[in-house]
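At this stage, I put together a protein sequence along with its fold in token form, as given directly below:
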Amino acid sequence: MKFDTQLAHLGRRPTVKGGHAVNVPVVHASTILFDSVEQMKEATQNRSDPNWIHYGRGGTQTHVALQESVAELEGAHAALCVPSGLAAVVVSILSQVKAGDHLLVADSVYAPTRGFCEGFLKRFGVETDYYAPLDLDDLRRKLRPETRVVYTEAPGSLTFEMQDIPAISEVAHAHGAKVILDNTWATPMYFKSFAHGVDISVHAGTKYIVGHSDAMLGLVLTNDETTAAAQRQADLLGYACGPDDIYLALRGLRTLSVRLERHQKNALALCNWLSQRQEVSRLFYPALPDDPGHKIWKRDFLGASGLFAVELQPVSDESVGAFLNSLELFGMGYSWGGYESLAIPTNPSDYRTATSWNGRGPTLRLHAGLEDAADLVQDLEQAFVQLRAGQ
């Protein structure tokens, strides 16, 4: 089946004989009953297998439907649901490291991932170094005998550096390290991570998979070598997702394709308009032909989502505040991936240790929602009037 057909049909296996609902049943359960001692024993022995249901914390038929669907869409061996995108990061890394190990993380990584490495892993004897996301030689130099994981994000958080995932995977695997990728920006629709050498793909399902800003969810997708360890780690941490949130993710998944097409269309329209504005210094969006990462994006990716960044010409913080405060259609909020447009101020220099940020002016992160692009442009235009007035 083609991708769009998969979105409509995956996970919808009938669970009863005769007629059945179009949507997967939402099963609320803590206790799972068994018909025999033998069945109970078999379920317990296979508790790390997401297709076996043994206790509510491990999920129900509702969870299995989502896990099977996203795994097939991205070409994974298996998938599991956890309560948030950060929980997915935690499970993926902890499943591969122990005290005394070392991991390398892209310097442009999502800030809470860096926080987990510095605030948790360090306390338990796992050391983290950061590599320049566009420099393979820097990655090679920083590999150690005890390096177990190379953690990537493509494109990078806030500044959208496009990493060469196949090349990074080749270097990491030659060293015996696993590759973990945060694939939230591209989703399973626009980047097939396992076909490009990734061992574990993590998603903040909160973003585009849920797609409606109404549920928290993380997803950990694994290959056949990493599945058991990830399942075991999630079980040890006691992570559990409520079935209603899983249902919202399944509902969102069905429309992922049509939503992402609009997000991408609107993002390109906004970027093209912004590129003509005298207030704008640079744009950061790999789908743009003049973006430094465009060549890699075009080679490996099937599309782009609605998230990008803008660097303004040097202006005061008060002017930036006037711009943001005057926006009516762009909300200010720390998430993205929903139907609504968003705008927040950012400071990439706060989250760099292996590289330096050479920004000349203030930066904003924008998410192009599903509104009409002309209305979004009009909103930005009036906000630039306020920005200039504040100078």
